[in-house]
Amino acid sequence: MTDWLGMSVPPRTPRPELKGRVLARALARGRRWPLALAAALVVVAGGGGSLWWAHGRIDALGAERDRLAARVAALEDTVSSFIHDPATRLIQVPVSTGGRVGSVTIFVDSTRHRWLVRCEGLAPNARDQTYQLWFVTDKGMQPAALMLMDRDQPMVMGLPLPQAGERVMGAAMSIEPRAGSASPSGPIVFRVGL
Amino acid sequence: MRRLKARDEHALQELYDALAPWVLGLAYRILHDEDAAEEVVGDVFVKVWRGVHKHDPDRGPLVPWILSIARNRALDELRRRQRWWRKAERWGQARGATGAGEEVANPGPHEAAVPGWPLHREVHAALATLPDELRRVVMLAYFEGLSHSQIARRLQQPLGTVKTRLRAAHQKLTDQLAHLKDWLE
Fold first, then answer.
1. Which residue from A67, B4, B68, B141 puts its CA 20 to 30 A from A144's CA?
2. A73: buried, middle or exposed (CB in 10 Å: 19+, 13-18, 0-12)?
3. Is residue B99 a contact partner of residue B144, using CB atoms and an 8 Å limit?
4. Element spanning B67, H or E
5. What is the CA radius of gyration of chain A?
6. Contacts within 8 Å (CB) and 24+ apart, B72-76
7. CB contact under 8 A, B124 and A6
8. What ipTM does this complex have?
9. Distance, in angstroms, between A12 CA and closest chain B CA?
10. With an 8 Å Cβ cutoff, is A11 touching chain B?
11. Contact (CB<8Å) A22/B45
């Protein structure tokens, strides 16, 4: 009877564009077999040359898949090393952008002198703007990275810390022109000490 | 159901109109992330369209079957995210053990025009009648997908107590909801 429990949650109105996306996805999969059959017929009709081309294409796609899988594995490895290293500190900063509440999470790996930064729930940038992350050092604010948020999705980025000679004491984020700035010139989104 | 099994695409559209708000609501309740919840909605309707022939009406109505697909898919996503962010959770990102209270508060009346609303009211009311200690274990099991032993650890209660409470809650809900039927044809 717990099967009905899902109905205890209030409904949420889906965004209008979701319907088209969902139905297209569902129906495209339903039509996969006829499409696959048609594709197979085309390949057969095309003769050996087409078959050879298709074979090469499959090899190329397979290689691309393997390359992407290796990149994902490497990324997972990097993220995992950040998250599970006992020397890693975590700083979470709630931020408000464009009327939305989001967060910036910084994993500080003091052993390897690097940060992993995750932004979530930030308002997408205007067309000519970007978020810029700054290292707050004893010699002032140093550019760390541009974090362009064109889409309403979380972003994760690994950053090496500045070379020796500058002591990083905190982090900050501001909204800058899309090409970035040498020093903060736009609104500060947050500033936090380590 | 017959039209879905006959691959009537209009039936799928009608099913989406009737159930998408509930599937999205459930997925959002579990994931607290609109984008991820929308992904779940897509996955659910793809799975329903492709696998509707697997649904056995003798074993239960269509709506709970679809909601169980949504719940399982959302919990899979939740667990995947938790694996990545376990450390962050240790610093307090995890939702509180007793976050259930606000979730059973009555939603606004403006949504009463949504298809299926009377059924929602009944399930909501049944859940609300459970004593706090029973409702809490149900919420943790259903919406967070926790096992009995995980619930026991979370609530710092003996495993036997958790099992007993879940059994009691299940029995009470069964008694109260046994008469429910799909509002879909």
1. A67
2. exposed
3. no
4. helix B62-84
5. 24
6. B73/B27, B73/B40, B73/B43, B73/B44, B73/B47, B74/B26, B74/B27, B74/B30, B74/B31, B74/B37, B74/B40, B75/B30, B75/B144, B75/B145
7. no
8. 0.76
9. 5
10. yes
11. yes
pTM: 0.52
Tell how many helices (H) and how many strands (E) occur in chain B. Answer: 10, 0
Residues in A closer than 8 angstroms to B16, CB to CB, are 19, 22-23
One digit per residue, the tens of pLDDT, for chain A of length 194 reads: 558 888 888 888 888 888 888 888 888 755 555 656 666 666 666 677 777 777 788 888 888 887 787 777 776 666 666 666 666 788 888 888 888 888 898 888 877 788 888 888 888 888 889 999 999 998 889 999 998 887 777 888 888 888 767 788 899 999 999 989 999 998 999 999 88
Nearest CA in chain B to A104: B88
Sign of the Cα torsion B97, A116, A128, B39 reads negative
Tell whether B60 is within 8 A of chain A (Cβ): yes
Give percent of chain B above pLDDT 90. 38
Burial B138-175 (b: 16+ CB within 10 A, else e): bbbbbbbbbebeebbebbeeeeeebeebbebbbebbee
Closest of A167, A102, A163, A119 to residue A140, by C-alpha: A167
- Return d(Cα A105, Cα A108) in angstroms, integer: 10
Handedness of CA A19, A22, A26, A29 (dihedral sign): positive
Q: Is A29 on the interface with B (CB under 8 A)?
A: yes
